[in-house]
Design brief:
Length: 136
């Protein structure tokens, strides 16, 4: 049985949360950002290892953004709660990037024309691989 590397086993300077605090989100790898969304791993897989697996299986951040919760749950280590958390984070990131789904009224309810448009905003992060911020 191979032993996985727990986040706690990493040097403090290499841990995703500490790197985020020190460098900011733009300097983190896709796998580090996703590991922070995942939160914690399990007995056999760290959040960083699981993030790498998810990104690999889905073809990078664009695949994660487009994946339905059911597709995420096909990945070992991803249950319904984690799939929902990842899906919600990707949706929120997409709304923040602009597009009709990002608009809402003062109560936070989407405007009717945004709902009617039904178009998803462009997939943020798709150009990141070219910018050198790939999965690993």
């Amino acid at each position: 049985m191979t032993r996985h590397t727990s986040i706690a086993d990493l040097p403090a300077a290499a841990r995703p949360r500490e790197r985020l605090q020190r460098l900011g989100p733009g300097r983190l790898r896709d796998s580090e950002l996703l590991a922070l969304v995942i939160g914690s791993g399990n007995r056999t897989t760290s959040s960083l290892e699981l993030a790498r697996l998810i990104l690999k299986r889905l073809g990078g951040p664009c695949g994660v953004r487009a994946a339905a919760p059911e597709r995420l749950q096909d990945i070992p280590g991803v249950g319904a709660a984690l799939a929902a958390r990842i899906t919600a984070a990707m949706e929120l990131a997409g709304r923040g990037a602009g597009g009709p789904e990002g608009r809402s009224d003062a109560a936070g309810t989407p405007e009717p024309d945004a709902i009617a448009a039904g178009a998803r905003p462009s997939r943020p992060g798709c150009a990141d691989a070219a910018a050198g911020r790939g999965p690993d």
